[in-house]
């Protein structure tokens, strides 16, 4: 049964957990953008028939991207404990969970960037090459502008996945909304907290999707 007075008592914990969730996904999304974007560009431009074609680099990078993407996140959390301890100094809390979240987000977003660029008309790329444009100019002036709407949609999808992953991080003491749901909702059989945490995650995902769709439509000039 939903107990509003009980929820109000736990409001400081709920607020703290929500802040931790935003902290985790904020760090992870930033790292995914910084590393995943160039990684996705590399996967696309080194593929067969492209201006930086390199089968060896493409195969190696693609292999490692596929390996990480194939590992369930809950297993990845455990597998990366040594790396997390090395980077952060401990294995619990939102900062520690951000390591695993970032590792999971980078290859996911990289593949989205690669797929977004495959939607670009090859004629546009060939025209840029024929004018003598350097690879950097083609990437900066053609590939990124032409695929930016799809990349924004991919970034939105990545962010939504990070929200789901951050909730799973609660199982290993990662903090955030997931941790609150586990400690109060699951272990103490508190249905009120479970309902509130689920509602918060649903609202957060809806806001992210709405914002991502609006931004994508605004920058799409097609």
Automatic annotation (TrEMBL):
Record key words, sorted: Cell membrane, Membrane, Transmembrane, Transmembrane helix, Transport
Protein name: Methionine ABC transporter permease
Subcellular location: Cell membrane
TM stretches of this protein: 21-44, 56-80, 92-112, 124-144, 151-172, 192-212
Every ABC transmembrane type-1 domain range: 18-212
InterPro entries, per database record: AA_ABC_Transporter_Permease, MetI-like, MetI-like_sf
Membrane topology value: Multi-pass membrane protein
Family: Belongs to the binding-protein-dependent transport system permease family.
Pfam families in alphabetical order: BPD_transp_1
Alphabetical list of PANTHER family matching this protein: ABC TRANSPORTER PERMEASE (PTHR30450), D-METHIONINE TRANSPORT SYSTEM PERMEASE PROTEIN METI-RELATED (PTHR30450:SF1)
Primary residence: membrane
Superkingdom field: Bacteria
Keyword Cell membrane: yes
Keyword Transmembrane: yes
